[in-house]
């Protein structure tokens, strides 16, 4: 295909997607979400946008309410858009199928120059890069050691904590802030560059991996690429989880293409140098090519040896990058940092429910013993569960192991964030989920969006609007999914059939 015809094909895909009403819903939702992110209750006080909005008179209670309304409507539209463009629904209505990469480009574009959305992590990345620029090790000190706008942009709870991220992620943050001339605001915005690379890798690899396993690539792309959580957290939030996840699926795709897991293991090592959980995928790579099907001692030893060798390659690449960046292995000082905040992690919530009466009875002088115990129990459950998933799936269905293990860890860890769910979510379609499981995943997507909305609304003192959004999300899911007559026990048709 010549360049002009290739470009014409791209343009036709974009034009065809934009002509669809549902895609326009998504674009409008994205625009409203960006507008809502300019709320004075959500921007850092030192942000130039805060001062700019104040100069326009948008710094009072009314502007907070308007910003919250924009955000809630935007979230509702993004959920409605996602459900409306589902391939099975469009097929049933006789509508043409869409190029989901084109849909993602259209809906994600408004977020490219917006401030970080629904998270201040990008400000932390920038501040950690600023520490490196000043010859300080982010594994040893927090951003607050250098007072100024970089530190002031960081959420207070992370201001004095060391960085938990991989060494390559920190060094990339250093390079990126220098690229924008050390401007604190644009240093945070440019953190979208590696996130967008990750999204691009996910968009390229996910449908191709799905096709290799007999899954409808269009349906896989719909579930992953146009998922509101991916759009909001990976593009809007600029989380480094995006690049980690993108490199992880690239390692899987290279393994399938090259018929060797050596290069895939090396790529997983690079992914782990962004964020360490990627190591989990390394043990699955050998079984993509040669399944483990027998429990005879010789076969078990052989399988364990292959898994450990693949993991060893990833660890060696990770270690080399740790030394090359000059940061070493200081991230071990911060492995507990993500759990320092309370979220809706199931075991944390359960801990609070039990802790409350314990505190009323005066049985716990420290006031958090039950919460800490339940969080530790969650990690034990995750470890046992991952071993069980490995026994059940690793040898024959290695991507089932990767997806379900990541999802289990995300929900059992001391802290849960919606972007953690995407670690395993990008491979979820390859697990061939049955209808009930797919419906549950869609409902969970709505719940996580509702939780993000509630956090935002509470900052703006408008929690009633968040409750209204939750009701709207539920009605949207109920209308599009729960009232449909799918066969409950059959594999979801839109994922299995092409």
Automatic annotation (TrEMBL):
The keyword Transcription regulation does not apply. One of its GO terms (cellular component) is plasma membrane. One of its GO terms (molecular function) is hexosyltransferase activity. Keywords: Glycosyltransferase, Membrane, Transferase, Transmembrane, Transmembrane helix. The chain crosses the membrane at residues 22-42, 62-81, 101-118, 185-206, 218-240, 260-288, 308-331, 343-362, 374-391, 403-430, 437-454. It is found in: Membrane. The keyword Flavoprotein does not apply. Belongs to the MptA/B family. This is DUF2029 domain-containing protein. The lineage of its organism: Bacteria, Bacillati, Actinomycetota, Actinomycetes, Propionibacteriales.
